[in-house]
Amino acid sequence: MFEKDPRTFSPEYKNLSPEQKAMVKLEITLTQFFKEFNRSVSRWERMVYPALIIFGLLGLSGFYLIYHVTKDMHVMSTAIDPEMESNMGLMAKNIDTLARNIDTMTRQVTLLVGNIQNMDQNIQTMNRSIASMDHGIGQINVSFNRINRSIDTMTASVNGIRKNVDNMDKSVQAMSGNVMQMNQSMKAMTVNTGVMTHDMRQMGRPMDMLNTFMPW
Asked: Which residue intervals define the domain T-SNARE coiled-coil homology in the entry (predicted)?
């Protein structure tokens, strides 16, 4: 780049100091840079200006089309429903109300989720309590089994007592029969004793009479 510049071949350049040569080279570089920049700017000007004009025309045509489409939509909506604008306003209000209701529902759903989480915690607590109750019920069942075994033992003992009482009843009945027989025997003995006493009295009178006559 520097070899093509004629200033580097001049005798004055050869007599310059290194700092001056560096300044000359910087000047040459900046000169070439500005030349290339001017060339590129002129090239871009030839491309950019027509592009700007084309984009401007496209923008104007787009706005024109949007205007006519909007006008046609207005005419079409008026032809379909003359009150479409008011209905659209009501629809917008309803959509706004719906959005607020959805926001309220979202908050309520959030609260519901929190309540469900609390319910989950309560259910876990209930499960632990039920597990404790199951353990307690198991211990109660063991105690009831022991009580049932004790009751069975008591029932067997009561049955034995009943058998013994039945045997005692039979013995008492037998004793009652024996006592009745003894009473009858005593009555018979009493009667016999009375008869013997009467007989002794009957025999005593003749004996008294004999005793009066007999010498003994």
From this structure: 120-182
For residue range 149-202, list pLDDT tens digits in order. Answer: 888 888 888 888 888 888 887 887 888 888 888 888 888 888 888 888 777 777
Task: Give the integer Cα–Cα distance in Å for 101 and 98.
Answer: 5
d(CA 25, CA 119): 85
Side-chain half-sphere of 112: how many Cα atoms within 13 Å? 6
**What tokens does 47 get?**
């491309």
Cα-Cα end-to-end distance for the chain: 207
What pLDDT is stored for residue 84 in this prediction?
Answer: 58
> Percent helix, strand and coil across the chain, each rounded to 5?
95, 0, 5
Calpha distance 79→69 (Å, rounded): 15
Q: CA 140, CA 134: separation in Å to the nearest integer?
A: 10
CA–CA dist 64, 79 (Å, integer): 22
Q: At what angle do helices 84-213 and 18-80 cross, to 10 degrees?
A: 80
For residues 5 and 36, is the Cβ–Cβ distance under 8 A?
no
What are 179's two structure tokens?
A: 């006592």
Every domain of the chain and the residues it spans? 6-116
User: Is 31 within 8 Å of 5 (Cβ atoms)?
Assistant: no
